[in-house]
Design goal:
The chain is built from eleven helices and 20 strands. It has 429 residues and is α+β, with helices and mostly antiparallel strands. It has three domains: 76 residues, SH3 type barrels (Roll), CATH 2.30.30.40; 113 residues, Vaccinia Virus protein VP39 (Rossmann fold), CATH 3.40.50; 184 residues, Distorted Sandwich (Hnrnp arginine n-methyltransferase1), CATH 2.70.160.11. The strands form four sheets. Strands 11, 12, 13, 15, 16 and 17 form a six-stranded antiparallel beta sheet that branches. Helix 5 packs parallel to helix 7. The longest helix is centred in the first third of the chain and has 13 residues. The structure holds ligand 6LC. The site of ligand 6LC has 19 residues, from strand 7 and helix 9. It comes from Xyrichtys novacula (Pearly razorfish). It is found in: Cytoplasm; Nucleus. InterPro entries: Arg_MeTrfase, Methyltransf_25, PRMT_dom, SAM-dependent_MTases_sf, SH3-like_dom_sf, SH3_domain.
């Protein structure tokens, strides 16, 4: 373990602590002058680890921040010779991932989320007639709530409840306890490896992560669709949208950045660049934005069609935005959230929606906040346009980097920010 940089004196920094050697697992292009750009296989010297996501490192005598998840510790020369691939043992981190779903904490959080759970219940209820005699697969069933709704509110012929974690043992008991064992079959397996005796009419799953895609459980759903969904079968959810809005975030900015201006009457502003790197270069996942902090009308930037989306499409997903500021204020960042839609099994039947945005009931996903380096004051009529790109981490398959590239055009010449301001920000997860 290296020492935390904030515990070092300057002399220690230069003398005692020798940098650690790391190897780049993949290419990375830095955004802005304080992030490094490097190629797969490059050797980096890591000088400090100010946060778990971004390290202060050196490559070819250039110093800057590098995303920790792109680096692996360099083995000794002898070990290095024997290694020909840089892949970690488990890029999906399945042991840790399914381990956490083997305990109750996350299931309690998901089941306590009324908007989420009621949305799935509503989907089953409003399609109960059409679900009669249908075969359903519930992918990642957890405690089996969706399968139990199917069995109790409709009359499917069978529900295959697939769950990879050890929770599956309990799910089997819950199915029995609620008298649904004739209809619901619990299979403890990764969906990618499960063998079903037949194809299914409906593939239902609650796969959405923070900022929609984090965890990338959606890949398992797409693979199951291609293997097990019959021609003309239904996907629930059927589509998903990621929505973005430019916003104010006064209290978060105060808490993490303005704090350093005059704590206890002292000037701590030299710490602000560190604060920026530590707090603002990763998304803040558990943000709840007030509708009043939206500076423009939110806009859908990415739309996913669950029937046509392919696993390879997940590597890089891009969207565009063009916002017209309708409220003067401090532009602190962008907030993102998602909405999913469930098509009806009946033609012309009503669609069910699960919306995780600020105008709907809060969910356990909350919203995701991406902070800018510095706030920009904006006026009514200014326009903020740009692109968003979700880059799946080439090594750690459940992670992604979000890049926002934006510029502001001021509506009034008088505004100090009237020049176009283009900036790309990378947020690593
Ligand atoms: C749902 C996660 C549940 O789905 C959790 O119980 C986890 O163990 C299970 N799960 C995830 N991926 C798979 C898979 N490939 N095969 C079988 N079970 C799986 C909530 N998480 C999100 N909505 N993100």
């Amino acid at each position: 373990m290296s020492k935390q940089p904030d515990m070092q004196t300057e002399t220690e920094d230069e003398g005692d602590v020798s940098p650690e050697e790391y190897v780049a697992l993949s290419d990375f292009t830095g955004a802005g002058s304080d992030q490094l750009t490097f190629s797969c296989g490059d050797r980096l010297l890591v000088h400090a680890k100010p946060s778990s996501e971004w390290w202060w490192a050196e490559v070819r005598e250039v110093i800057g921040y590098a995303p920790a998840s792109y680096l692996r510790e360099r083995a000794t020369d002898e070990e290095e010779e024997g290694e020909d691939d840089a892949c970690p043992d488990d890029p999906w981190q399945d042991e840790e991932y399914f381990g956490s779903y083997g305990t109750l904490r996350l299931h309690l959080e998901m089941l306590s989320d009324k908007s989420r759970t009621e949305a799935y219940r509503q989907v089953i209820l409003s399609n109960s007639a059409s679900l009669r005699n249908k075969v359903v697969m519930d992918l990642g069933c957890g405690t089996g709530i969706i399968s139990l709704f199917c069995a109790q509110l409709a009359e499917p012929s069978l529900v295959y409840a697939v769950e990879a974690s050890s929770m599956a043992d309990y799910t089997r008991q819950l199915v029995k306890q609620n008298g649904c064992e004739e209809v619901v079959t619990v299979l403890q397996a990764r969906a990618e490896e499960v063998e079903l005796p037949e194809q299914v009419d409906v593939l239902v799953s609650e796969w959405m992560g923070n900022c929609l895609l984090f965890e990338f459980m959606v890949e398992s759903v797409l693979q199951a669709r291609d293997c097990w969904l019959r021609e003309g079968g239904v996907m629930w959810p059927s589509s998903a949208a990621l929505t973005l809005v430019p916003c104010q975030a006064h209290s978060y900015y105060e808490e993490k950045m303005a704090f350093w201006e005059r704590p206890y009457g002292l000037d701590f502003t030299p710490l602000q660049p560190l604060a920026q790197q530590e707090f603002f270069t990763k998304p803040k996942f558990s943000h709840l934005i007030e509708p009043a902090d939206c500076l423009a009308t939110p806009s859908d930037v990415i739309l996913l069609d669950m029937y046509t989306l392919q696993v390879k499409d997940l590597e890089e997903i891009k969207g565009q935005f063009h916002f017209c500021v309708d409220k003067p204020g401090s532009f602190h960042g962008f907030t993102a959230w998602f909405t999913v839609h469930f098509d009806s099994l009946e033609t012309g039947g009503a669609t069910v929606e699960l919306n995780t945005g600020p105008h709907a009931e809060p969910t356990h996903w909350k919203q995701t906040l991406f902070m800018l380096d510095k706030p920009v004051s904006v006026c009514v009529g200014d326009s903020i346009s740009g692109t968003i790109a979700l880059h799946r981490n080439p090594i750690w398959r459940r992670h992604m980097t979000v890049s926002l590239d934006w510029n502001i055009h001021s509506s009034t010449e008088a505004t100090e920010n009237c020049k176009a301001n283009t900036l790309t920000l990378h947020y690593a997860t």
